Amino acid sequence: xxxxxxxxxxxxxxxxxxxxxxxxxxxxxxxxxxxxxxxxxxxxxxxxxxxxxxxxxxxxxxxxxxxxxxxxxxxxxxxxxxxxxxxxxxxxxxxxxxxxxxxxxxxxxxxxxxxxxxxxxxxxxxxxxxxxxxxxxxxxxxxxxxxxxxxxxxxxxxxxxxxxxxxxxxxxxxxxxxxxxxxxxx
Length: 186
Prior knowledge:
By secondary structure, the chain is of the alpha+beta class. The chain has helices at 20-31, 53-57, 77-91, 109-113, 136-145, 169-180, and strands spanning 42-46, 58-65, 68-75, 98-102, 150-152, 158-162, 165-168. Strand 6 (158-162) and strand 7 (165-168) form a beta hairpin. Helix 3 (77-91) packs across helix 5. The two termini are 14 Å apart. 19% of the residues are buried.
């Protein structure tokens, strides 16, 4: 991970009106160099009793098209910000990305985060020592969040567009790992 891009994990707590939102804006501006309301670099969510893993990671929902019903995957808050961050790494823009979770204590954090919670345990280089599996549906959502135009063939193989050709996503990520050096992507 580039030296100037180190993760910041903070939990701010306190009564309403004690300056938590002010502190988040200050961190975004002063430490990350991004405006708090920049939707190209920031994703915000609020945990509540009905908030689920599907809201956080992504979910499949029915969509009516004419007289037909199709199912579409909607990436959750975490997949969206992760896709933005990975795309930023691939593009080499050295930008920071911010996920703001408001009211963390109001949702069932263990159920909402699932195995993704392990990613918070980081090594000195800023990367997690754990690997986390995501479903093919979540992977396609992540690739879409990275603007990689994924497609799936009849055998269930996920492809990524590479110029005018398509390549299996595993080759795409292997290539990116090589290009980016020690950075570990998926």
